[in-house]
Amino acid sequence: MGLIVQKFGGSSVANTERVMNVARIVTDTYKKGNDVVVVVSAQGDTTDDLIAKAKEISHHNSKREMDMLMAAGEQISIALLAMAIEELGCPAISLLGWQAGFRTDSVYSAARIKKVETDRIKTELDNRKIVVVAGFQGLNKYQDMTTLGRGGSDTSAVAIAAALNADRCQIFTDVDGVYTADPRKVKGARRLQEITYDEMLELATLGAQVLNNRSVEMAKKYNVELEVISSLNPIPGTIVKETTKMEKMLVRGVTKDKDVSKISIVGVEDVPGIAFKVFSQLAKNNINVDIILQSVGRDNTKDIVFTVSMANEEEAVECIKALPFIGDAKVFSDNTVAKVSVVGAGMETHPGTASKMFEALYGKGINIQTISTSEIKISVLIDEKDADKAVSAVHEAFFGND
Ligand code: ASP
Ligand code: MG
Question: How far is it, in rounded angstroms, from Cα 397 to Cα 67?
Fold first, then answer.
């Protein structure tokens, strides 16, 4: 018995049958004597549909109104789920983000949670209610609704679990855990029993779309143990926590990310301060940079290559071209690239990881454009059309294929 936070994503509540399925999971947990707080996303593609409706009006809608609109999606699912729980004979109450005490900063569409004032939730729990909370939304200091950015309801769940000091935070989804690679695409992909926050963070950022990365950051910060679990298949999922007791695996997963654009600055003058000026210009424009590479200088010029997400491609090229020292240097971009990465806390102490990855790519005749490494990951940039083949080959090299 304890306090359990359960989060259900959009696909888990997509239709009436799924809502009833969720109600059964929630009421089973409640009937075992637990206090239960449920966080839900909007049903199925609701958020996308709302955004599409807004775009029919304008592509420049105010972010405040976009948040007002998008927050409506979760309002539907909390009410329906509360009704479904009551239908199964348990007491429930639905709360919008602001009613549940979510206070955020004022950045519409990408708000950060400042705190969760838990009085209302606690009162409802004391009355033995199952509390159903709208994920993804909160209230700012102007008493306006905000949303946390796409996929934000994972973060709502972790924030509630942290604020209530919950015994467990379960993230229910349509996959049954975190895999070593996308199980729909890669033969032999395995489900992990446990994974560390840092590894999960790398996987989340690198495009394994199981958990939103801000939710993992928050879970790490407040030490909230997460369980990623299927809402359709009742088997134990993957636990995300600080350290795993299992033997350190060399590599925990292989991912690909196609949302990458490679920007090249070729033949810029080889003098001090160029990198500083390029990257501070990008930072000023709020453009996040990932892999960075600078060539050895020759004939007083050098090349700088870096990657940004595709949404920032044009703006990045424009703002670099506008720099006074660019002169005759060429600035161009290429978004037909993909980033393939291996992630694992064990690789720090195993020298052969990089060569094993490169050998697997070589074996398939795949050319590596750039390489970058950190303590727990190695990423390469390759031609986008080779991405799936590359992930399978690298996965097989580390995990076999049965
Ligand atoms: N409904 C929101 C979205 O689609 C939040 C979420 O699903 O986590 O992004
Ligand atoms: Mg999600």
Answer: 45
